[in-house]
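Hi all, posting the design record for the shared folder.

TITLE: backbone redesign
STEP: 1 of 1
STRUCTURE INPUT:
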């Protein structure tokens, strides 16, 4: 691949990385910080990518790892007001119903929320998700299935009705 610059990556995948970080953290400012860290890391430690898809996968994996690290940090152990989280939504990216569902997804255990987000919001298939997360395809498939069940239970609890 000829152009591996951080600027190229940011122009091409900046919004995707930001959406991923926001979906994982539920906080727009934290998502911006994580996005900045991902691209600064790429700028300071240039990588060789086979294709744009490889670059995108690397960026998403970096963002997901940083989100996981943030969740474990002492700063995130404190509670943040729910109103603040809901105020910081990406404008015009999600409908109000999508925001509610996205919030429920972010409340799932990370092993489920990251797989669900990559599958439904970023439209990766199971094989691609397995490669991004460094997991076996069968593991990803199981996580997706279990995550769907947990999400369905939560949605039903909130009054959502499904047509089967």
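Okay, here is what came back for every position:
SEQUENCE:
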């Amino acid at each position: 691949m000829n152009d591996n610059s951080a600027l190229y990556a940011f122009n091409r995948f900046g919004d995707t990385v930001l959406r991923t970080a926001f979906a994982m953290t539920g906080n727009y400012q934290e998502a911006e910080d994580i996005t900045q860290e991902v691209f600064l890391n790429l700028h300071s430690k240039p990588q060789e990518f086979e294709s744009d898809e490889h670059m995108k996968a690397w960026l998403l994996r970096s963002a997901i790892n940083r989100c996981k690290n943030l969740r474990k940090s002492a700063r995130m152990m404190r509670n943040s007001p729910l109103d603040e989280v809901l105020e910081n939504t990406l404008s015009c990216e999600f409908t109000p119903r999508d925001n509610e569902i996205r919030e429920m997804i972010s409340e799932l255990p990370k092993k489920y929320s990251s797989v669900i987000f990559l599958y439904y919001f970023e439209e990766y298939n199971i094989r691609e998700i397995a490669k991004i997360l460094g997991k076996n395809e069968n593991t990803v498939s199981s996580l997706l299935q279990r995550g769907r069940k947990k999400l369905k239970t939560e949605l039903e609890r909130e009054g959502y009705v499904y047509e089967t």
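COMMENT: The chain has two domains: 1-88, 94-164.
Let me know if anyone wants the other runs.
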